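Sample entry was shown:
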Amino acid sequence: MSDFDFDLFVIGGGSGGVRAARIAAGYGAKVGLAEEYRMGGTCVIRGCVPKKLMVYASGYPEAVKEAQAYGWDAKIGAFDWGIFHGKLEAELDRLEGLYRKGQEGAGVSIHDCRATVAGPHEVALADGRSVTAKHILIAVGGKPFVPQFDGCEHVLTSNDMFKFKTLPKKMLIVGGGYIACEFAGIMNGLGTEVSVLNRSPFLRGFDAESRDVIIGQMERAGITMRTGHVIDRVTKTGESVTVHIAGEAEETYDAVLYATGRVPLTEGLGLEAAGVKLGQRGEVLVDEWSQTNVPSIFAVGDVTDRIQLTPVAIREGHAFADTVFGATPRKMDHDLVASAVFTQPEFGTCGVTEEEAKGTGADIYTSSFRPMKSLFAGNDEKVFLKLIVDQKTQVVTGCHIVGPDAGEMIQMVAIAMKMGATKAQFDATCAVHPTMAEELVTMRNPTRSV
């Protein structure tokens, strides 16, 4: 008989937490899990899934224009947010139910309340109970960060973007990361007048040349993009929100979204009192096995601030369960993790950027062209592809794609990159014609070297 109530207690019902709980339970562990909001976490309930559905919805006006160019007598009326939102909520309910069913089917004991760490082996539940566990896994994810300023209570975060009763006609988005740029495209496509404001360049950290292509196309789509501006304060009058830009005039909008990054959700979790070390941003510091400095406490996903991507959290959670409960020690490999940014145009990326490769001895291959589908429709927008190749080994160390279905393409490229494919092996692969992706295997001469 165990001296603990549970072999594993997971705090957080998001992607990483539920994967770890289910796999550990499959190995015979007695597992408990606490989630204070909704099963599924940020990705399923207030992130990737609803956002991608909104991306789809926002793309239909442009699709109708394209259909007309192809000879269809196509028309589109007004967007009915009420109809879409009702179906969206139903889909999220369905997915949440599947997550819960998966846990229950595995024998995981679910606690629908907040949980905090009370000690190396103790968890305090908000309903007044206290349980003990041989191992505790922190998988609470992150939350949107809004800086403190006068009137900050009047702005929205990404959590609020799926809760509108009616869509705003005019909206300001503050921030320059992928969340800000994704929502700019979504709201613009749904008919909202969108401005984006940031103090520094947009999409920092991504490949600069690819980033410039994206921003240029966003501007041509009618989105106002501005950098070098700071908001002093925000005031609200009735349903209108007024922003006061430092040294400039006031501007009034129906809604203001702050997409200024995310921070680990560790505040008030009891970790420091339990002796767990946190980083400067509040992230749980872990080693390559996702173990904290307290041997019985582990952490996976966004709360560790390693790579904030759902598939990474899932793999970290699975590796943890395999290692601790499956007698199969396994680490998550954080190298060459591909990702997609669902801006409009879409962006797929894997490996180093040109800026990161500068000075290391790399050849840069690029291709920019008008794809067949949009060219025929009279659309001037271009697809952009880039390969970064190490000069010594000829291994492809970076790939960046801007264009339709870039996320689908980068997933396939990432497999080759993970296997260490060389430029010669890319070149030896016969092209699939006519496709956009064929350009990845037909770029013969480098554009430049860095």
Notes: The CA atoms of residues 38 and 96 lie 7 Å apart. The first strand starts at residue 6 and ends at 11. The chain has a mean pLDDT of 96. The chain has twelve helices and 22 strands.
